[in-house]
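Appendix B. Extra example for self-study. Work through it before the problem class; the solution is given directly after the inputs so you can check yourself.
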Amino acid sequence: MEILLIVVVIPLLLFIVGIGIYNSLVQRRNEVKNAWSQIDVQLKRRYDLIPNLVETVKGYMTHERETLENVIKARQQAVNVSDSVVDRAQAENFLSQTLRSLFAVTENYPELKANENFMALQEEITSTENKIGFARQYYNDSVLHYNNQIQMFPSNIVAGSFHFDPAEFFEVEVAEEREAPKVAF
Amino acid sequence: MPKNVRRQRSRSSMWELIEQNQKKTITLLILMAILMMAMGYIVGELVAGGAGPFGVFIAWWIWLIQVLISYYFGDSMFLRIAGARELKSGTQHKKLINIVEEMKIASGLDCMPRIYVIDDEAPNAFATGRCPERASIAVTSGLLKLLERDELQGVVGHEIAHINNRDILYLMMTTSMLGTIVFLSDIGSSIMRGGSSSRTSRRDSGGGSAVFIIIALVLIILAPLVAELMYYAISRKREYLADACSALYTRYPDGLASALEKICSRPTKIKDSSKLTAPLYIVHPLKNSLDDATSTHPATRKRVAILRSIGNKVGLANYNQAYAEVTGDTRGLVSNALLAESESFEVAKPAHSDESDQIQSVPKETHLDRVRETTDILWELNGYITIPCSCGTKLKIPPNEGWVKVDCPSCGTLYDVPQKNVA
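Solution. Structure tokens for the complete assembly:
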């Protein structure tokens, strides 16, 4: 009779543990997707803020057409880029750079800096940049969390059987990002 | 899973930290619960022989009632006591709202906490809320005026860490346990001091009762003290861990460090704060810069030292090392299993929203330098002869006076005056 117990109870226990692992994997994979969409939310917010910024700034910075055009072009690129993590990361990094150049140039226009609209926009965009950064950070952390469980024993067995694929990190480093942007006076 | 399984070297994430934290606190809570049950048993036996188990039962009920009261009424009570105003979304305090949202994203919190502002010059902040879905953060107007963006971010990160780690819930349960233990101890001691008629009528074995009385006495005296120390220990560890989490969220521990320094250089007493609400604040509102071991907050000096000594790397291992160096507690704060997996992250550069970092700043000349430059030019224009002395002074000799040798007024060195050749 004990043998029957062992033959039934142990597989049953393993099954229950397996269910637990499977559910945990599902949770973490969904967390990764959720984290990715959070980045999207912030990126879209930035897209929406930029036309506003360009309008506010145009009137004051009549000699900085090139800088403004760079921002507009970069934004267009980022909106239209493909869905792969790597491409998007590159496009968004580039847009961040052009924005930084723009804000650096505004240092020369004290009237613009005092403009209330501009100050509010600057805080909004800076905060959005921070949020994008944090959203990326959180996305990477959730990817780590998920990939860990896929690779570690014994959950890797469950992960393999149900085709849980590893997620990619949002970690593209564009060479230009390492250099400080050059400001032309 | 066996503890010494060799895991792959991978970075730890915030969730592992939280899990570990909760496990540790549960251990301490279980110990306190055992102490509480022991007190219940003793009081039960003292009241009526054989009523020990019933005493335990009653102890749990006393605890549960306290927990429920603080659970349901705690938030609104604390916020009302502190006189907090809720911030409706709008343009006022947009920066604060943005910062809270940033930390919410970085920490992976599901819902935005409600934000309150307290009109008080004393800089301080606290978080309350029985679960992450119903969390609130309160900040004083004094704090908003005092701190830079990065520092405010560190403070908000610390509070959000409390929310994320469910510290408020645990402190609630711990406080209730402490309250119950003290309460039972009071009852126990008044029973023992009071009439013995009930005891003489007890039906218990002769040998057991003497031992029992001794144990009961010891526990009645010691339990409240032990429980209080445990409670303070839990509270302090939670503060350190919230600091560490804030550093992980912001990747910039210096922000929180300088915020703490600034806060402690001023009085932090908030009107209507009391011993009750103290543990929730980021810095103890009544006692500034403490060194006490019997306190809910670690000494601010130590917190700042740990944060600053993290240096360029931010991660559990660095925090742990810093903690060990500063406090001399070689066991550290974080378990070895967790450390084995954790890696360091690079500290981020501060995000200044007010000035751009890219433009090279001109080296600041002092006023004195410019004055000297100008007067030197004037001396030369008027035909004075300049002799630089080795002690740093510049000797200026008026023209056409016939000086041949001159000594420096500061150090006395003799110099030959270069004679102008008259053309």
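Self-check: Chain B touches chain A through 28 residues (CB under 8 Å). If your reasoning did not lead you there, revisit section 3.
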